[in-house]
Amino acid sequence: MAAFRWQFAACPSTLSDYSPVSTATLAWTRRRQNQGHRNCNSANIKTFHGLSYSGGSSTCGGRNRSSVRCFSALTPELKTTLDKVVTSDKVVVFMKGTKDFPQCGFSNTVVQILKSLNVPFETINILENELLRLGLKEYSSWPTFPQIYIDGEFFGGCDITVEAYKSGELQEVLEKAMCS
Fold first, then answer.
1. Are 48 and 166 in contact (CB under 8 A)?
2. What pLDDT does 55 receive?
3. How far, in Å, CA of 109 to CA of 175, rounded?
4. Residues in Cβ contact with 177 at an 8 Å cutoff, skipping those fewer than 6 apart
5. What is the superkingdom listed in this entry's lineage (predicted)?
6. Is the distance from CB of 153 to CB of 125 less than 8 angstroms?
7. By Cβ atoms counted within 10 A, which residue in 31, 66, 92, 149 is the most buried?
8. How many CB atoms lie within 10 A of CB 44?
9. In this model, does residue 172 exceed pLDDT 90?
């Protein structure tokens, strides 16, 4: 686990170089995106503390609005780091909490399934880093956590893992990964 913490801490676009201001901007941007402000005019994108945003006013629903509208939390540096992390172990789980102390029921369910199968796995606590959490959603194209990677490939979240466990598919996939 220490190796993962070092990799993320060493990546300037993920942990150390973002100020509380940019983290707040990121959260605000996320809320605005959830309100339907998703169109991005690349000619109007600016950078603030390493985050892209679009300034000025726009027309949305017939009203002029000035908002932060477009950014990518998945920087090239974070993508490279995630590529290394998901291939560093046969099973990697990005989750809320750790395998010793899961901090949500879905994460706990995945941990209990993997432990019951006696599979060695690593966990990464996404609650420690907002940019990691947002970047992972883009990286996997999966909006929720936990996210399970088996043999370097995205497997799914809690629901998919539970269904695959019940059907026996998870055991097959894990056996194949452990033998490769």
1. no
2. 37
3. 20
4. 90, 91, 150, 151
5. Eukaryota
6. no
7. 149
8. 13
9. yes
**Count of residues making up the chain:** 180
Domain boundaries, the chain: 75-179
Give the DSSP letter string of the chain.
Answer: -HHHHHHHHH-TTTTTT--HHHHHHHHHHHHHHHTT-----GGGEEEETTEEEE-SEEEETTEEEE------S--HHHHHHHHHHHHHSSEEEEESB-SSSB-SHHHHHHHHHHHHTT---EEEEGGG-HHHHHHHHHHHT--SS-EEEETTEEEE-HHHHHHHHHHTHHHHHHHHHHH-
Mean pLDDT of 100-112: 97
Q: Is the peptide bond before 102 cis (omega within 30 degrees of 0)?
A: no
Rounded-to-integer distance, Cα 86 and Cα 124, Å: 10
Q: pLDDT tens digit string along 130-153? A: 999 999 999 999 999 999 999 999
Domain covering 75-179, topology: Glutaredoxin (3.40.30)
